[in-house]
Automatic annotation (TrEMBL):
Pathway: Lipid metabolism; fatty acid biosynthesis. This is Beta-ketoacyl-[acyl-carrier-protein] synthase III. Homodimer. It comes from Lentzea jiangxiensis. The keyword Transferase applies.
């Protein structure tokens, strides 16, 4: 087989961070009209991590970013991308502060908001910078404190989401190396934006001239159509990226789907005909961590030996927007810390 020496972005480091506070289903049952059985049967989630007062998204991002840099052997990067929907402030971007706190002052840094698809979108953006020669080493962080935008009385959302961060370092390499990312499939459908939305806080609400409805500062989700769209969009996107990569479904050693809830993961895997034992999952322990979901599940699976060097991994994600994205990677031999 002819070697492929095209310039590519290669995964060379990974790191994660979760808030120390664990909130179990039984804990939620003491505050809401719910139960462990109700939550598990609908989501597969038994616990999630939640930030303590005084902690922000940048705090989680810095911890995960530092661990990813250490995993990659240290050194500087040429770009920092923070995928998040819960920045520290509406303005400025969170990424420059994260970069500065990591000792990367002067490095270009920006946020990318594609919600639960944000990490895959950020990977594609980083790959573009590397392939174009704009950067040779990029730190990509997915970090969200999504519990801060939830209605504490809404059991359907409080039960699902958790806080966390995951990061990777990508370096310039060649397309035939283990760890080379791509191809990618990305897409969106803004006609269904209202299915997952925080109505207030942006220019639409601020410029309306109408009094703020306190309920509008919280996240809202229309569960059934979200479920249908998630399964359809991730299944179609994953199939497209497999075709671009020239992989068959039987070539996939591990399937890393955005950890929305266990029922969605199972439905997507069934649609794609991925065997259950090849699906990696940690949603039961961390919930839906939004942009942190993909790096968290990859790192957890690698640490547990469920993903090993040489495994061909299919990655797919879906989130508000609506937005979705998929890619593939042959897992490299990297330091997991």
């Amino acid at each position: 087989m002819t070697a492929d020496h095209r310039r590519a972005a290669v995964l060379c480091g990974i790191g994660t961070w979760l808030p120390p506070r664990v909130v179990t289903n039984d804990d939620l049952a003491q505050q809401l009209d719910t139960s462990d059985e109700w939550i598990r049967s609908r989501t597969g989630i038994r616990e999630r991590r939640v930030i303590d007062p005084g902690t922000s998204t940048s705090d989680l991002a810095v911890e995960a970013g530092a661990r990813a840099l250490k995993s990659a052997g240290g050194g500087n990067v040429d770009l920092v991308i923070v995928a998040t929907t819960t920045p520290d402030h509406p303005c400025p971007s969170t990424a420059p502060e994260v970069a500065s706190r990591l000792g990367l002052t002067g490095v270009p840094a920006f946020d990318l908001n594609a919600v639960c698809a944000g990490f895959v979108y950020s990977l594609a953006t980083a790959v573009g910078h590397i392939v174009a020669g704009i950067a040779s080493r990029v730190l990509v962080i997915g970090a969200d404190t999504f519990t801060t935008v939830l209605n504490p009385h809404d059991r359907t959302t409080v039960a699902i989401f958790g806080d966390g961060a995951g990061a990777v370092v990508l370096r310039a390499g060649t397309a035939d190396e283990p760890g080379a990312l791509g191809p990618f499939d990305l897409g969106s459908d803004g006609t269904n934006a209202e299915l997952l939305i925080v109505p207030a806080g942006g220019s639409r609400q601020r410029g309306s001239g109408q009094p703020l409805d306190p309920a509008d500062v919280h996240f809202r989700m229309d569960g059934q159509p979200v479920f249908r769209n998630a399964v359809t969009r991730m299944s179609e996107s994953a199939a497209k990226v497999l075709a671009q990569a020239g992989w068959r479904i039987e070539d996939v050693d591990r399937f890393a789907c955005h950890q929305a809830n266990a029922r969605i993961l199972t439905a997507v895997a069934r649609t794609l005909e991925v065997p259950e034992e090849r699906v990696v999952m940690n949603v039961d322990r961390v919930g839906n961590t939004v942009a942190a979901s993909i790096p968290l599940v990859l790192a957890d699976a690698a640490a547990a030996g469920d993903i090993v060097p040489g495994h061909r991994v299919l990655i797919t994600s879906f989130g508000a927007g609506l937005g979705w994205g998929s890619t593939v990677i042959t897992w490299p031999d990297i330091d997991l810390g």
